[in-house]
């Protein structure tokens, strides 16, 4: 068990999550568990039950989590003051993320919800720093350093799999668990990552015409494994997500005498994953499925979590299943073949993760945006692994979207409606999501949920990526499109922020606020 | 906890299973658990480890099972000789099924595998009978009585739900568990059995044209509940299981702005359950689903276990999902509206349950066949509940058909191929299964797995029901049809009996034995 300690703002959660991904271990943040179990935010627990009430909950959770076999745990800043927790720490590898007082204050400055900062933060800092040093097996300088870099250094130290250039992120869903493999050139090593496939005789690689030439490496791997592997081509982009294409795929499988033990590999962007994933989930009541996503959007989002989808004339993604793959193999070398605008659209989903879960990701993104849009292998691999870890964590908590998985729809209620409106034909999904997040920021601002700073950060991140932030759209047309939204529950609901990294789902909005939002979406830069 | 004790042949497993269904409790047979855990038959455990080795395993399982909260347990005949088990029995309601020595010997006579009968069965009987009497809280005369009658008497005594004329059988699948409700006139009380349906606004009752007039009772119930309920009509029989009909249903749902919280009710035979169940599993990634099966085949088999299916030109049921309903409501009054030949075809699946799981069901069936084919409510309710309990038990053990669920395909490998061959157009599924079971009996006999008596019992049961037992079919045409069988694994495999009530899946058969089987299928009566 690896336990991360340090003052608030040291980056324990961010570094912990990346480290866990690199080591292929489960990650846990004790504050998040306390909040989830009580259904209250930490600051509200302090308010309602006082510090001692919070410490009691924290002690219980920490004992439980540190008592598990392997994993990475981020502890609350004050946990080291609890003798019971300290006893448990003696059996863990304790990593102290050492950050200076000024840097810590700068990082948490924006977050006024930290309950321990009320009295004398400097005294608290000095007192805790001594305890951290005493407990630490490893001390890491966390000033001015990227969380990825720190996590890589720690992964090397703890001898994880991350050291051979491959990150393996586990999506934990009981007997449906699987890995997301992220790295450079990993498709050339596909057989290392494939599941066992008892009784499989054939493999069907479903892809778009333009990717056909890139499929030979994969076919070689599958053939080496003894599978009769062939490529099946479907139309480009969203056009493949039709019931007609699905029917053609069923016929192709039947003609080739596919059986339920045989393998389907999807090779391409989110659309081919949606469509061929749907076919895999429904042919012979379900065949083994492997996703090899080639776009940034698919690598960081669409390929993880098991959603499959087909469009109807009446609406996008109206037909579909939740069907988990056996493994997702994200080879970032394919990103170099993507048009720059497609990469840019994918960045919208990265920004989404920043806002709903990991604000530090936004800073790295703004800093590295040029390298990312140039498909630099090192930068893309790090970004994809970080996003995959966030998505894996959310999906593991809530496979069927009855809880936190809804956060992933941040910006998407607006985006889906925009995509549906004919006027927006040709708008990329990521571009629609960018506009949708901007709208969500305005709406949260109109409802008094977030301040100007959070709205500005939306503008800053989206404009750094060169993503669109405005749309000429009227409320009645949106309302008509929302009627068929899958998340519609006796009225449309939104995912909105209540602070940076703090999303809330199922928020209703009065018509007036929506009208103001659309006005700002039309006029503000 | 209710524990059934008694000598071998007393009917502990059969009565226990029916009783558990009537009380809505889990059922467990300790012998079956020991066999499942070791992967060995009881007789082989005796052979390999001696009686003491078996008793050790039995003690462990009995302690675990009797230690659970509520349930019905059938104990092995000799379990009462173990002091540790007796201690546990002091906390259970012990029911002694009292059967005379001659009757017990008659019942187990056919089963030469009983290891304890080797020495002096009479002495064993006398010795154990004393122990049973001492332990019993209730003693029931089990000579010359129907297991249903005994179970009903016990259900009354233990105050179960079975007393108001409704049996509730639980399909245990974790958070996907549900009840199969069996009774007379239960659809008029539908709202008692429906799930909670948070946020549902609409209900779609999918049915065939000829059942449309019977749907009003159901619509009343749904409307009372505040749902906007409407009927959607699909073509009769297998014709509704096409991708075209599925597409029409999707469009109908989209036009009526159905959402994932809304309800789909299937009302009809297995075909409408397969097709509308498939739509429910794939529209908006899954809507709540309720089956109201109206045919014997659907009530005892198709509606339980979550299989949905659509046909392709290339083969039956090639597309589908595993998607569990929220409840299955079997109202046996509908069976009176079924043509006699349709009821007869459904009896084939009842006979199947007899051969794979509960041979005593065959005796009841042969005795009650006239009342059953006349749709007598009392007889049909008892038969449906018994079969539903068997299917529920198997599905609970193996939702995705990687193990014992395959036993349900007894006779079906032949049947599916027969249905596929054009020469057999018009053959009912149940009729094909009847021929298929006869073929499976011949094949098992050819392979030396079963004796003449078991083959004769196939003939006796099938001819009592007036089901077909012969077919003019050649091996090459069957082989072609098998190529696309979903169970095909590098060659076709069969479910065959190794004794009455002892199926085995995945059996390969040499071509010569298949040729002999088809010869007998053509010529023997």
Descriptive overview:
Two copies of one chain form a homodimer. With 525 residues, the first copy, chain A, is of the alpha/beta class. Chain A folds into three domains: 2-157, Rossmann fold (3-Layer(aba) Sandwich), CATH 3.40.50; 167-338 and 375-386, Rossmann fold; 410-523, Dehydroquinate synthase-like, alpha domain (Up-down Bundle). Helix content of chain A is 47%, strand content 15%. Chain A has 20 helices and 16 strands. The first copy, chain A, has helices at 12-23, 30-38, 42-67, 83-89, 101-108, 121-135, 147-157, 190-193, 216-224, 243-255, 270-282, 296-302, 340-356, 359-373, 377-397, 412-420, 429-446, 452-464, 475-482, 511-523; strands at 2-5, 27-29, 72-74, 93-98, 138-141, 166-171, 178-183, 202-207, 228-233, 263-268, 289-293, 310-312, 315-319, 327-331, 494-499, 502-507. In chain A, the strands form four sheets. A seven-stranded mixed beta sheet of chain A has the order 6-7-14-11-10-8-9, with helices on both faces. A five-stranded parallel beta sheet of chain A has the order 2-3-1-4-5, sandwiched between helices. A two-stranded antiparallel sheet of chain A has the order 12-13. In chain A, a hairpin with a 2-residue loop joins β15 and β16 (502-507). Chain A starts with a strand and ends with a helix. In chain A, 51% of the residues are buried. The mean pLDDT of chain A is 90. Chain A binds chain B through residues 199, 201, 243, 247, 250-251, 254-255, 257, 259-261, 278, 281-286, 307, 309, 312-315, 318-322, 400, 483-484, 486, 488-490, and chain B through 199, 201, 243, 247, 250-251, 254-255, 257, 259-261, 278, 281-286, 307, 309, 312-315, 318-322, 400, 483-484, 486, 488-490.
